[in-house]
Amino acid sequence: MSQDNSLCALPEKIDLERLSEQDAVYETKLNHEIMTRLSDACEEIEEPALVKLHFYKDLQGLCTLEGEISCKLKLICERCGKPFSTKIIAPFCVTSDKEKAAELKIEDRLDIVDLDEDGLFNLYAFIEDTLLLELPTVARHENEDECDVKGTSWTYKDENAEEALNPFAVLKDLKGKLNN
């Protein structure tokens, strides 16, 4: 039986096994006040994160959490230094049954999550971690026309610096001395 709780508030810590047994489905929003590490990693969280969750027992009996998190963020372009908006979409499929997943040799198919000492799963930390992992390594405008800095060839060399010596030039000089 599926339970659909549209835009409900979920607690920070949940019983993953109980929700998996109930085949629970949730769609909710998570406000930026809860995601302090994500706030620190970007210029601004423009909209609450939209979180779609499906808790279920898979065919092997693993307590599984599958879903998608999307969030609109404002980042600073590392090319031009100006802010731009982007949408991060993070699909996931996880289980807390590490031993059973290893026994079935499917631990590479699912990410393994840890439960706390009370057997509860920290949902808010997981959502924030998942979004943080989806941040681009180099933040830049997706559309090059929007960026003030044009071109695809990037150099970080100081034009005034002397050209680096060719490492083989020393060998050439040494060879010349040996031949004399």
From TrEMBL:
Pfam families: YceD (PF02620). It comes from the Bacteria. One of its GO terms (cellular component) is cytosol. GO terms for biological process: ribosome biogenesis. Keywords: Ribosome biogenesis. InterPro entries: YceD (IPR003772), YceD_bac (IPR039255). Plays a role in synthesis, processing and/or stability of 23S rRNA. Belongs to the DUF177 domain family. This is Large ribosomal RNA subunit accumulation protein YceD.
